[in-house]
Each structure stands twice: as C-alpha cells, then as structure tokens.
Amino acid sequence: MSNNVMERGVRRREFISQTLALGGLAAAASVVGTSKVWGAVSHRPLDPMNPDILFGSTSSLWSGQHEIEWAIKRIAALGMQGIEPYAQQVEKYRKNPTGLKKLFDEAGLTLIDVANGAVGTSTNFMDAPQVQKTIATHVEYAREFLQPIGATLWKCNMGQRPVGGPSDDQLKRLADALNEIGRQTIPMGIKLAPHPHI
After folding, report:
1. What is the CA radius of gyration of the chain?
2. Could you say which of 1, 35, 115, 185 would form a disulfide bridge with 190 (CB–CB 3.0 to 4.6 Å)?
3. Residue 98 near residue 70 (C-beta atoms within 8 A)
C-alpha cells in the first residue's frame, strides 16, 4: 500500500471514530436535554424517542409539558436508574414528600436529590444581609423535604455570579454558608454537594 492510501485510511478511521463519538454525545444530549440559556447539555431529561420537553427550558419557572408523575413513569420505562428534579418540578409535593417518594419507589426509580431553589428559599450566598436567610431556608428544606424522601446527597447551585466575579469576601461568605448548611444537614444524613457555576 502506498503512503497516500495508508494516510487516507487512517484519516478515514479517525473520521469514523470522531463521528461515532459525536453521535454518542448527541444521543446523550437527547436524553438529558439542551439548554437554551447555555447552548449545551443541561440536567433536564428528554424522551429520545419523542423529544418533547419533560421539563421547562428554565430552572426558575415550572413550565413543563408533563407533570412529574408522567416523567417518573417515562424515565423508568427508558431504563434510567434515577433522576434529580428541580425543586419547582416537585413543588406540589412539598408538604407530602413521602407521597413523592412512593411514586419513585413504585416506578423502581431513585430520587437522587432535588436541586435547591424551592419556592421561598434563598440562593443568595454572596450578599451578607441575605446569607443567614439562605442558610436557614436550606436547612429547613433539607429537614422538611429531603430527609423524609431519603435523600443522602443535595446538589446546591449558588445563585447568580456577581458582576465582576465574586470577590474574596464573597467567596468566604459563600464557603462559610455552605459549611454551615453542611454542618446542619450531615446529622440528617444529607451531604451537601456544591454545584459551582459561580
């Protein structure tokens, strides 16, 4: 074989492997969804066979086409093992966490945790006057909702990135707040998992 043919073959193999890899990424994106905000993969699941949105395009407002009950059944039918809904997606179960847990248990699906940001809770970890409210509302949500559903992990977003990036003082407040929330949720059996978009 000539060098040109070998080079072409190698390039073709590389092309095919890269195409397959991109196809795999596209398939993964079709399962977890795409974000209109970031233009990348997000945490919202889609049905790859019928890609209508299970949950809304923003995490700040519930605007889904399907209720959480439908999503639980559909996600279990697709063979997934567990999911992490946004707080808004399960808000109607806020006063009945064991009812939500029962739906997951019946579907054989694990409710991994519920992302923070529930109605009435604060995600302001940066502004000194708001930090105590953020700690208090996170601990309350963990005690009243996450602990009864059996969550052992809690992924927390940390609010908006301040203009100009967080200062050293803001980062210290954030770290102190996360440590305090974690200190209070560990006895509940819940480990805090900061999700560092900030």
Report:
1. 21
2. 185
3. no
Give buried/exposed letters for 116-141 (b at 16+ CB in 10 A, else e).
Answer: bbbeeebbbbbeeebbeebbebbbeb
Contacts 24+ apart (CB under 8 A), 163-166: 166/126, 166/198
Report the Cα 85 to chain-centroid distance in Å: 6
Q: 63 phi and psi, to 5 degrees?
A: -140, 35
Beta carbons within 8 Å of 148's beta carbon, 6+ residues apart: 97, 98, 101
**Residue at token pair 């009945």:** 96
Q: From residue 8, how far is each of 12, 16, 20 by CA, in Å?
A: 6, 12, 18
Q: How far is CA 98 from CA 104, 111, 149, 151, in A?
A: 10, 11, 6, 11
114 has a pLDDT exceeding 90: yes
pLDDT, tens digit, 9 for 90 and up, residues 11-33: 666 655 555 555 544 444 334 43
Summarised one tens digit per residue, pLDDT across range 161-196 is: 888 889 999 999 999 999 999 999 999 999 999 987
Place of tokens 């997606």: 89
